[in-house]
Amino acid sequence: MWAAQQAQTQQQNQQNAEKSANSGKALGMTSAISTADPKPIDIQRTLELQEALKPFNVCESDQELNHRMEILCKLNTLVKEWIKEVSISKNMPDSVADQVGGKIYTFGSYRLGVHHKGADIDALCVAPRHIDRSDYFTSFFEKLKAHPEVTDLRAVEEAFVPVIKMNFDGIEIDMLFARLALKEISETMDLRDDMLLKNLDQKCVRSLNGCRVTDEILRLVPNIENFRLALRTIKLWAKRHGIYSNVLGYLGGVSWAMLVARTCQLYPNAVAATLVQKFFLVFSQWKWPQPVLLKQPDTVNLGFQVWDPRVNASDRYHLMPIITPAYPQQNSTFNVSASTRAVMVEEFRQGLQ
Questions:
Q1: Where are the domains positioned within the chain?
Q2: 198 is in an annotated binding site
Q3: pTM of the model
């Protein structure tokens, strides 16, 4: 399953590059600033950048990556078993219960391919329509509690986005739940389909949002490998400069990812070392509160509130809007204040020097 997800990312990379080349312009809201190919010195600097990152443990070994994949496979199997058990308990015939499926998706830094050593995994359990959130926080919670490799298990059912947190064989996992209005969940289900949100409750839409945004970011960058190395670099820089924190009024992981993705769109053929320099160039000069958008906002009308300062008065007061690319579009930086924005802009200027 996880090998398939990796293959899908490689295929996406190729499709994005072809799309960019065929259209003659970068992906995104505007045409590219430069489509220049990298010079030998740019490639050399990118190799040096890769070497420079090694002491900071920003990448895992193949063994550590395989361990994560094994854990996710075990968790996926547990989800399928649990959904079958609940289906049968609700008087569904065994033959039908075998077919209803259920699946684990990942999102956040792990899905983007930029997680560091020891990082947690953001995961989403997607279930068919006859499985309730109450089942997830009761019978599935009990199933996890009985598993020998699961420790530090806790449920936060009343959170803005309800979550089960656990340590699974040494890896921290935050797992959300979403019930789709479908009879069964296939292995090839693509969560990017906006119509999947029809008739869902707000908590399910919020839970799906992480996966939908992450997948859309990967779809909207011209070269995923260049994006990943540039993002790893910028994330490390932001953490070491004390500006990586959504809670404290700075930017969280998804916001940094969208800023780097926008840089990639503006310089579609640039390698990572060039992208890092262009990142500081672009955002030290950005005219905030002009929003950062990776694509034209979707015009889907399923009744969910989207970021739109023309309609929502509160959106007009956002100081550093970075808008998620999946419906319903949200500003990922509503915690930013005038003072934290000033700090970040100054850091961008310093980074450029």
A1: 62-214, 222-352
A2: no
A3: 0.92
